[in-house]
């Protein structure tokens, strides 16, 4: 039996899709998985340090990982109407925020790359861009520590309850620009695992997602253990939005969306170019 280190976030979409894979609900062959749950930016950094065999990462971080990791076809968070939002306490325009303090969920997050693609004026400046854990962002805006926040995950369902206003939906901007779904996060595997083993892991992950779709009540306890602050309704909304047909398999349209995202980031000089294939052979 070979142990594979596995990283994913405690967010409901990840605990939903990885539940069966890590709880013996699907056949793993000669592979076993030792999971680590962490914030997505922490996972991005772990991948940069090659600490994990298989891990969820932001598609922004993927741009820096392609020499050592390849993308799995299953497990992605990608879709329509699910992009990150800019929120503030008071009504304002994006132009008014150019020199203001903006809380972001990490410099390697897809959300922050989207913000830079939207307007290069938001490239990192330590006096204006404030990286912090995603679950601290809305309180930072409410307290006045930040003038605006770049929110992800369940924040799009709960920001109004904090008295915050939406300034911009970056996912809608991307969809209008490209007519493609927005690639938020994907599952990467170390190339050193070898193509055969990587394909096997991809297949196990797909079966794990299929199990979750067919047995929705079974992962619920596990999901709630890691998302205790969320109501059942918000958990359901979160999973319904971020786990979809693209999570089972990126397909041609999903692959086009990922390539478009990476090519725009390369052209903007945000990520380095790579000659490595996106997927295992």
Topology overview:
Elements: E1 2-8, H1 12-22, E2 31-37, H2 40-48, E3 54-58, H3 59-62, E4 69-71, E5 77-79, E6 85-88, E7 102-104, H4 110-118, E8 129-131, H5 137-143, E9 148-151, H6 155-158, E10 165-169, H7 170-178, E11 182-190, H8 195-214, H9 220-225, H10 232-242, H11 245-248, H12 251-267
Parallel strand pairs: 1-2, 1-3, 7-8, 7-9
Antiparallel strand pairs: 3-11, 4-11, 5-11, 6-9, 6-10
What is the CATH topology classification name of the largest domain?
A: D-Maltodextrin-Binding Protein, domain 2
SS elements, strand count: 11
β-strand amount: 15-25%
- Helix count, per DSSP? 12
User: How many domains comprise the coordinates?
Assistant: 2
Name the helix and strand elements from N-terminus to C-terminus, one letter apiece: EHEHEHEEEEHEHEHEHEHHHHH
| C-alpha Rg (nearest Å) | 18 Å
């Amino acid at each position: 039996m070979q142990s594979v280190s596995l990283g994913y976030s405690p967010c409901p979409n990840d605990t939903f899709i990885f539940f069966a894979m890590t709880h013996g609900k699907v056949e793993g062959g000669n592979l076993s998985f030792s999971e680590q749950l962490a914030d997505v930016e922490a996972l991005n950094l772990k991948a940069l340090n090659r600490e994990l065999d298989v891990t969820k990462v932001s598609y922004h971080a993927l741009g820096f990982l392609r020499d050592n990791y390849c993308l799995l076809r299953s497990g992605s968070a990608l879709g329509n109407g699910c992009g990150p939002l800019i929120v503030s306490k008071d009504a304002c325009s994006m132009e008014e925020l150019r020199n203001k303090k903006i809380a972001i969920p990490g410099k390697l997050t897809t959300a922050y790359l989207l913000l830079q693609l939207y307007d290069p004026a938001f490239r990192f400046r330590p006096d204006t861009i404030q990286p912090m854990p995603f679950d601290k962002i809305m309180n930072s805006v409410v307290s006045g520590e930040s003038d605006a926040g770049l929110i992800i995950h369940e924040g799009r369902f709960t920001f109004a309850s904090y008295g915050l206003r939406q300034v911009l939906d970056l996912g809608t901007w991307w969809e209008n620009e490209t007519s493609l779904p927005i690639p938020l996060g994907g599952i990467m595997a170390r190339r050193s695992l070898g193509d055969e083993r990587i394909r096997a892991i991809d297949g196990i992950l797909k079966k794990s997602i299929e199990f979750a779709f067919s047995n929705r009540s079974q992962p619920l306890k596990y999901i709630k253990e890691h998302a205790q602050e969320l109501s059942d309704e918000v958990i359901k909304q979160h999973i319904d939005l971020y786990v979809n047909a693209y999570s089972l398999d990126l397909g041609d349209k999903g692959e086009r969306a990922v390539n478009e995202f990476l090519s725009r980031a390369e052209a903007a000089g945000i990520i380095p170019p790579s000659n490595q294939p996106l997927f295992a052979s």
